[in-house]
From TrEMBL:
Renumbered residue ranges of the record's region Disordered: 438-460
Source organism (scientific name): Cohnella zeiphila
PANTHER family, per the entry: UDP-GLUCOSE 6-DEHYDROGENASE TUAD
Protein name: UDP-glucose 6-dehydrogenase
Keyword flag Ribosomal protein: no
Catalytic reaction list: UDP-alpha-D-glucose + 2 NAD(+) + H2O = UDP-alpha-D-glucuronate + 2 NADH + 3 H(+)
Residue numbers binding NAD(+): D30, K35, T86, T121, E155, K263, R327
UDP-glucose/GDP-mannose dehydrogenase C-terminal domain mapped to chain residues: 313-417
Length: 460
């Protein structure tokens, strides 16, 4: 089939390359001419496993083409996927202008039988509005079908999620539209859920909101474990072994970030308020998530007196491992808040996916280094922010020899705290038993004394 995709973000590119792999001819269009130029030269502007190889293979074979002009694809493609961004601000209002702009451009050129598939995450009722808007612009000879097929892929494993989705949701209000879309997605080994467009739209927001609620539950439970002398990792394992609960998204730490979960949760809360069915649980999950960087800072303050005179290393910056995406990354709030509360603190950082974009997202006072060792050298404490596997391979003696004082605040419970604590390193996890988090009063006293001496010019 001749297909087209509007929007060359992670979702658009993966959808385009995925359907090319399934034997279709796909045109991918983006208004960002720089990005289109890069893609035409075989460069994928995302750190996404397997995506570049898939794109180059099909681009070379002529099954996948990139352009910034929707004219040809609107005129030729039978099915057009809309995968433009739908960002939402703090007020939860989703910006649909990119979607309307894409639709309006398409409307100018479409004719014949055309199916529009909305992949972007949108407020409930958007597909209805979109259909009405397009119909008002279309020539009479055009037969239009509109489906809502929300996307559930995760960054860092988008290609795998495309080919092995947990489910495919086809929201359409008539059998013919459903049949057209089912012909495409039926090639994937996944249950297909047929529903109406509004339910498909709400299901997408509900799925992300549910994950947000689960993670905030995990984080609040971890805080309670700390206060009551219980061990959260053990609790998470116990909860996770119950198939009714499931083990995923119970990881406590610095909370959820990224370009979608936070914004979709905010969008759902706004939509629900407007609809008169408030989502108080989701709103509370968002609030709980926002407290986590400060919680971590309090731990640092307990471990280290005089933080304003200290050097603290951040290990990992991206919102999760496997990506260089800094959108709503907890590292940014953490760094901003640390610098605000402790002016004079020296912040160093290392992320295996370091990029210019990463540097731009952080306060300028954060010094980025090219290795964990360089960021940790002379540090009085380190906070593990993103659980890149390489941090788990740093040995206790390396922490001890590189750092001024080997105090590790493990914000993702990714390090082997028991082994490190037995080897002269202080490793404090999230929601861990006090037995696993050694008494810090000595460390705090000692480092406080040293800072005071330094301040008075008497040396350590
Ligand atoms: N990133 C992810 O892992 C997932 C994202 N989603 C949803 O999918 C949608 C797209 O997400 P991303 O790929 O991350 O977005 P993105 O923001 O990274 O990329 C969107 C692309 O659309 C382009 N664009 C904007 N207006 C356009 C127009 N009028 N015509 C053509 N192109 C246009 C932009 O230049 C940009 O390259 C969003 O609604 C998002 O919530 C859903 C599931 C997963
Ligand atoms: O709508 C979207 O864009 C996507 O949003 C998320 O995918 P993604 O943003 O790639 O990120 P996740 O892997 O879900 O992680 C989100 C955040 O939760 C955090 N997290 C994850 C798991 C956990 O146990 N604890 C935890 O704090 C991660 O560190 C990260 O900051 C959803 O998982 C996808 O299904 C959805 O399609």
């Amino acid at each position: 089939m001749r297909l087209a995709v509007m929007g060359a973000g992670i979702v658009g590119l993966t959808t385009a390359a995925g359907f090319a792999e399934l034997g279709h001819t796909v045109d991918c269009c983006d208004i960002d001419t720089g990005k289109v130029g890069q893609l035409a030269r075989g460069l994928v502007p995302y750190r996404e496993p397997d995506l570049e190889a898939l794109i180059s293979r099909h681009a070379a074979a002529g099954h996948l083409r990139f352009s910034s002009d929707p004219e040809r694809l609107a005129a030729e493609a039978e099915v057009i996927f809309l995968a433009v961004g739908t960002p939402a601000g703090d007020d939860g209002l989703m910006r649909l202008e990119p979607l309307w702009a894409a639709v309006d451009r398409l409307g100018e050129w479409m004719g014949g039988r055309r199916t529009i598939v909305v992949k972007s995450t949108v407020p409930v009722g958007t597909a209805d509005r979109l259909e009405a808007r397009l119909r008002a612009r279309l020539p009479e000879r055009c037969e239009l079908f509109v489906a809502s097929v929300p996307e559930f892929m995760r960054e860092g494993q988008a290609v795998r999620d495309f080919f092995e989705p947990a489910r495919v949701v086809i929201g359409s209000d008539d059998a013919e539209t459903f049949a057209i879309v089912e012909r495409l997605y039926g090639a994937l080994p996944a249950p297909i859920v047929a529903t109406d467009r509004r339910s498909a739209e709400l299901a997408k927001l509900a799925a992300n909101a549910h994950l947000a609620v689960k993670m905030s539950f995990a984080n609040e439970m971890a805080a309670l474990a700390e206060q009551t002398g219980a061990d959260y990792p053990a609790i998470a394992r116990i909860l996770g072994l119950d198939p009714r609960i499931g083990s995923e998204y119970l990881g406590a730490g610095l909370g959820f970030g990224g370009s979608c979960l936070p914004k979709d949760a905010r969008a759902l809360v706004r939509l629900a308020d407007e609809a008169g069915a408030p989502q108080t649980l989701v709103a509370a999950a968002i609030r709980a998530n926002a407290t986590l960087p400060l919680r971590m800072i309090r731990k640092l303050e307990a471990a280290l007196s005089w933080p304003s005179r200290r050097k603290v290393a951040l290990l990992g910056l991206a919102f999760k491992p496997g990506t260089d995406d800094m959108r709503e990354a907890p590292s940014v709030r953490l760094a901003q808040e640390l610098l605000r509360r402790h002016p004079g603190i020296s912040l160093t950082a290392y992320d295996p996916a370091a990029s210019q974009a990463m540097k731009r997202a952080l306060p300028s006072a954060v010094r980025l280094y090219g290795s964990a060792e360089a960021a940790l050298r002379g540090a009085d404490a380190a906070i593990l922010v993103t659980e890149w596997p390489e941090f788990g391979r740093i040995r206790a003696e390396e922490f001890r020899s590189w750092m001024n004082r080997p105090i590790l605040l493990d914000g993702r419970n990714a390090l082997d705290a028991d082994a490190l604590n037995g080897s002269g390193v202080v490793c404090i996890g999230v929601g861990r038993l006090p037995a696993n988090s050694p008494d810090l009063s000595g460390a705090a006293d000692e480092s406080g004394r040293r800072a005071q001496n330094e301040e008075q010019g008497t040396g350590a």
